[in-house]
Amino acid sequence: MGRVAVGLAVTVAVAACAVAAVVVGRRVKSRRKWRKVVNVLRELEEGCDTPVGRLKQVVDAMAVEMHAGLASEGGSKLKMLLTFVDNLPNGTERGTYYALHLGGTNFRVLRVHLNGQRSSVLEHDVERQPIPEHLMTSTSEELFDFIASSLKEFIAKEGDGSNISTNRRELGFTFSFPVKQMSVSSGILIKWTKGFSVVNMVRRDVAACLQEALARKGLDVHVAALVNDTVGTLALGHYHDPDTVAAIIIGTGTNACYLERIDAIIKCQGLLTASGRMVVNMEWGNFWSSHLPRTSYDIDLDAESPNPNDQGFEKMISGMYLGDIVRRVILRMSMESDMFELISPKLKIPFILRTPLMAAMHEDNSPDLREVARILKEVFEIPEVPMKARKIVVKVCDVVTRRAARLAAAGIVGILKKIGRDGSGGITGGRGRSNTKMRRTVVAIEGGLYSSYSLFSEYLHEALNEILGEEIAKHVIIKVTEDGSGIGTALLAASYSS
Ligand code: BGC
Question: Measured from the CA of 229, which atom of ligand 1 is nearest?
């Protein structure tokens, strides 16, 4: 080989080594970055961990806070609001009643026909429409005029109205926000939640605002009941199944109500009801306990929310927030690595990832996680997502949802414990498991997270079994009601208008 050839060979070899070194260097770097992604995931898993021991601590904390909230006004972050609903509909109600439902993603108008007999299917009509976003932060007049106009249009479509009385119509208003009730048909707004912040509404009587708007539209409709969505759900659940003792909403927001003995509501001594009971609206979205597994993502989400230090439990559980927790984790991963090559500016937009889309990624069963790639492209404009990154995204959704569902389960058991239906004889009962007969106990549930997100409901049931033990858990029935919050409110309007 001549000198020239040797020189050439050496140059080629050096160049090849240099290229190889660059490739290896890049790989090492990329592997290091990928390790960071894996570490972020691991940290998230640890932060969101909810072993059964921790869930039981949450159960106890929930029961203790319930007692504190019932003992004195402001005694707990759980408001434990009186509803003045002391009797739940029993099937003897007759006539046509209306309901308006404000507070979730959709606004609903309903009409329910009751024939005085408890029937398994209640004849009703419902119209849903997404609540126009600008109304969530508008003035109270604008918001209530919209609500009254929707009812007016709904009534106008009744045709010749041959089967509908022309007398004054009776209506129940499902208002899914914390309200301090003065009676079953009046109450003042304590605060807004779920992104609503209509000006000049807090401390005003919500039913009166609606009644005035109905009058402005020339409608002869009487607001006979002002009802939280959980209470409407309980009313319908109890109507169909008298073993129903509590109701839970896990949708855009989350909350629970239950039937309480009147003598346990210590903050209102002297309160008497014929039934000796009253439905209590817990406003559990505001529950807080040091046992809740909180991560830096929760802390940031809370700090940047319009209501910091408020609705802590809701921010870990409900549909308004889960997608945004996932977005925050993915953003951190993409900032610490080249997981998506470039950091998409869309990843920095709060609430851009809606929970239904997050659920769709989580439940993507296609072998190449096609749906995950499609949603990441559609929402965040990330063009090509490698398979291993898709898998990580699914895992993040899983961790966030599993924690939410398990905490919701612990909340439910907390209520059962408070009323002595957890098989342990209640928080102060002191009776052993063996001599307590567990009664059939039904909890009505409504909201998209439970009814449309099967992994969420699976995780919730799994946790109920773990906390209660299978023997006890089989006596606890979680029953979905559809439009229960609206139909149940119409039922309450029927009971309380007469
Ligand atoms: C509200 C509750 C409501 C729940 C579910 C929460 O944000 O404070 O009143 O029941 O959402 O809609």
Answer: 10
